[in-house]
C-alpha cells in the first residue's frame, strides 16, 4: 500500500481529496500535520478523527517517517519549499499543491533540490491533467495546424489564475517565450502568451462568469472543451499515484514550473504595459504568499 501524508490543512483540498484517494486501490492517507497558518489549534486532530486517520503529527519530519510520499497543501506558497524539504531530503515523492511557488528564487531552489536529492517532485493545478484536456490531446493529430487558442478561467490573478495557465499548458506543454497584457475590464484581464513556434494563446484571468474553458482553432476545425471541475482533483491524484509507482513524474519539474514564469510575466506586463519575455524576469518579480495566506485565513474565519 502507498502510505500518503498530508501537510497543512489550510484549504478545502485535503477534505476533498481524501475520499478520492480512498477510492483508489492500495492507497491511503495515514498521517497529517497542520502548521496552523490558517486553521485553529487542534484542527488536525478534528480532521483526523473525522476522516479516520491514525496519526496526527507534531512535525513534518514525523509525517515523513510514517509515509511513502507526501502532499503539501499550504495556502502560503512561500512556505512550500520549507514544508516539502523533509520529504525531498528523505528521497520521498512529494506533491506540492498550487501554486507551487511564487517567485523565481524559490522556483530555482526547487529545481536544485530535485537534482541534488534525485527526488520526485510534482504538483500545481489539477486543470493541467483534467480529463477534458486529455481528450483534446488525443485529438491533436486530427486538428491539423493549430492557429490560435482561447482559454479562460475565474477567480483571482494568481492563486486561481494559475489554473488557467496550467490548463493551456496541459495541452501545449512548456515553451512560452513571452506574455503580453492586451486588455482589461474591471477584474477581468486578457493576455497573449506566445510560444516559440509562434502559436498565440489568448487567455482570460478573472472571467466574470464561466467555467474553465479552452478553444483551439486549427486547420481542421475548432476544438473546444468546458472543463468539468468536479473531476479535476481525481485526474491529478491519479497522475501522482502513477508517478509514485513509476518513480517518474509525467512531465519534467522544469516544464511543470514554467506556469509560474508565465504568471510572473503576466503580472509584469500588466504593470509595465509591454510584452515581457520569460528570460528577462528577475527575482524582484513575485507573488506574496504570506499576504495571500493572511487574507485567506481572515476570509475563512
Description:
The chain has 301 residues and is α/β, with parallel strands linked by helices. The protein folds into two domains: 2-102, Rossmann fold; 127-228 and 261-280, Dihydrodipicolinate Reductase, domain 2, CATH 3.30.360.10. 41% of the residues lie in helices and 24% in strands. It has helices spanning 13-23, 43-51, 60-66, 80-89, 104-117, 131-138, 140-143, 161-172, 232-246, 253-272, 289-300, and strands at residues 2-7, 27-33, 55-56, 69-72, 94-97, 121-124, 146-152, 176-185, 188-195, 200-205, 213-218, 221-226, 276-277. The strands form two sheets. It has a seven-stranded mixed sheet, covered by helices on one side. It has a six-stranded parallel sheet with strand order 3-2-1-4-5-6, sandwiched between helices. It is globular and about 55 Å long. The relative contact order is 0.15. The model has no long low-confidence stretch (mean pLDDT 96).
Percentage of residues in helical conformation: 40-55%
Strand content of the residues, in percent? 15-25%
Q: Quick one: CATH superfamily of the largest domain?
A: Dihydrodipicolinate Reductase, domain 2
For the biggest sheet, the summary is:
7 strands, mixed
Q: Tell the overall outline.
A: globular
Number of strands: 13
The N- to C-terminal Cα distance equals 37 Å
Low confidence ranges: none
Strand order of the largest sheet: 12-11-7-10-9-8-13
Q: What is the averaged pLDDT score? A: 96
**Structure classification:** alpha/beta
Give the class-level CATH name of the largest domain: Alpha Beta
